[in-house]
Amino acid sequence: MLHNLFVSQRCLLLITNRRCQILKRITIVGGGASGTLLAIQLLRNSGGEPITIDLIEKHKSVGRGVAYSTESPFHLLNVPAAKMSAFPKEPGHFHDWLIAGGFEYAPTDFVPRALFGKYLRELLDITSKTFGSYATLDLVDDEVVDLTPDISSAYVTLASGEVIQTSRVVLAFGNFLPPHPTVPDLKFISHPKYIHNVWDPQAYERISDTDEILIIGTGLSMVDVALRLYTDGHKGRISAISTRGLLPAVHKLGYEYPSFIGELNGSKRITEIFTCVRRHIDHASSNGSDWRAVIDSVRPHTQALWLGLPTSEKRYFMQHLSRYWNAARHRMAPGAASVIDEMQESGRLRILKGRLRNITHDGDKFLVNHVIDGDINYLESDAIFNCIGSQANFRHVESRLIQSLLRKGAIRCDELSLGLDATPDGVLLDSMGRPSPALRTLGTALKGILWESTAIPEIRQQAEALAAQLLSED
Questions:
Q1: pTM of this structure
Q2: 87-102 pLDDT, tens per residue?
Q3: Nearest by Cα to 415 from 322, 317, 318, 311
């Protein structure tokens, strides 16, 4: 009786299809890696304070998301096991989990991504059980279709019609489907062999093993598609095209390079930064180190350097240099690279440098018009895989929730249209540039603000910091 009275005094009674709010409630929209890491940090650090955490994921794959839901043994992490811990202060945590589970991997090994997805989900379950006496985790298999932030709370509407009143909402988006190719006629996108979602397992069922395939994009997503086709024993020739024709670099471990951040601090021009980095790359190559170690020595400071640049310099970087940086920074595991090399040497995979001009379908094949070094070229393919990369301009993301929030002025895109506008610690800004009392974000949505914000080493730090911030707020 006393317990019921205690709860009722702190529970805001809503209409029948709404949940009540008991003390502090934090709702996380998105159950991929970033949402899962945040939920784990909230559970671990709640400090005995009663709290309810909603983790809402529509794809029934909490902890895995797009990146770690693959079951292919050829889809490897792009970071060694020793650097993939869920916790910034416990760098060996993931590798220790592997060893405890009977997986004989060295700290320097690039392990299958499926194992990391399993690790995150098990860690979430264990943490929930350990701290469940006062911190409640509610896994919600549903889709958030609308959200109304208030001064001190927010109302979250689910596709099922249920409404959750909550203290704070964290938009933990992962990667979205890529934009369609920039060509004048998009009629071809309705064809079943135009694969917009390359992570859909059923998409590969529409492909014959002798089909000639064109992959648009030559980054890590292209590598994943090529490896999947290789695993399936695909016999048709595969072509991959991008503006620069750049493949991701290959990891080479075992090298170190001292930090030279003192030479970069305060830089206001991207060319100054690149000139300095190139100078150290030359020094590294002549002193027994490797250019990758130079890039890695800059990584811990990339966010601060990006925040210090004027918008005009960021735009210059995006237009002229980002493709080269991405190829150097986001690398392939050596095992994946060896398969890509084998495919190229055997003629099963060719990499093209060119700009798409038009794509049509004549009822039999896709006809692709592209320009290489000023010359017009044509190629035919039976299927097209879109590996351009995640849609970063939130104005064009096909999401009822995002479009509703933009219409309401509750959020706005950042000035580079790489994500959402926010403070560096994840407080979202509304259409007038005012900090939201109730809305937060982390991960990919902060790419325009922090640039380096899409990999686990950055996301786990954001999750730890954001959890502390949320738990300290009234």
A1: 0.92
A2: 999 999 999 999 999 9
A3: 311
